[in-house]
């Protein structure tokens, strides 16, 4: 039987949901908070519980939209102050390129991951497979596997505006790849561990990503076996602007073809007009192929970066960065999302919200927040063969010298900009500072305390 409070809660929630749809986020928040107060999760009836969860999830979405709106209002004020004569976008800055031979693990971690800076690593991809990967090799190893290809849909609210299309064999997909009628078929994010373990076994995971926390969870846990995944695209196909899910970091290694990548920093996200429909992963209203600065003036405040990824190169994309990818040529690539100390806090936040509606996300959240979870990273780690990567075990003999900051350490830390200041190196301290709006990292002289400078 419905209790009076339950009925009132549903009315508040319905109103909240209506207000959310009409963009009145502050009012929506008020009503949803009332609904949740009247109908807490402890309610014993299952369907009530489901509704209460819906309300909580919707409230998080509304809170995100309030933050976006606030940043947009401030952005518009900033634009007014600037009093620009003509509307122009800031030119794209090139992403840095560095050879794998000049990039020790610690430099990658402190200079790029912790400062949320994309980077292209050269001379690395040929070391990542036991034999060279070509389209022919993929056909040989995975030809009989079934794949559901993706296709771009302009009005889609799905991730990267790509939706499931036809199911076929890999051989057929490859056979038709150059045909005009296949120009919209993308073999996209096709999990190798799930669909073709024979190919996965040929992989070596570069040291930079070998501390992946997703490999420290129990068998069967969400995302543990999702990546690396395969991407094969005909020339001209685009993955529209998106942010990777659950606060994950990302890398992509390119074997064949060319891909143009465009990135923004996470703080630029509100200036790209994100829309949250049925998910916490927004679609963006701006069209970067033909930016319209009259409709989307805030685009002028963004600081875009770009690179054309070449065969043999690997790209690192930090968590939270919106990006768009254009296949300039027919391409063959693999990629993975991963978690380590650089994005752990963001991942926890995002998984917490995803947990409300998704049991597997909750299971992962509980594992990575358990006090026994090993958060430490081994800075001496080497590239790992597939079986080593998949069978991670904590070993006393290895040096796990990059530590999660404990509360005592945190007291000494002031938090600069985007950097969440949660990491300390046992042997040396890195200093963080801001230069031209960028967070930079440098080795600090040996001192006992970690000082982070905003
Ligand atoms: O290469 C692409 O098309 C997009 C890859 C990407 O951004 C992703 O999988 O998240
Ligand atoms: Fe992505």
UniProtKB/TrEMBL annotation:
Q: What PROSITE patterns would the database entry show?
A: JMJC (PS51184), TPR (PS50005)
For this UniProt entry, which residues form the secretion signal?
none
Quick check: keyword Secreted in the entry?
no
Species this protein is from = Tegillarca granosa
Database matches in Gene3D superfamilies: Cupin
Q: Where is the JmjC domain?
A: 207-355
Name used for this protein in its record: JmjC domain-containing protein
- Any keyword Glycoprotein? no
UniProt xrefs under InterPro entries: Cupin_8, JmjC_dom, JMJD6_ArgDemeth/LysHydrox, TPR_rpt
Q: Which UniProt keywords apply?
A: TPR repeat
Q: Where are the TPR repeats?
A: 9-42
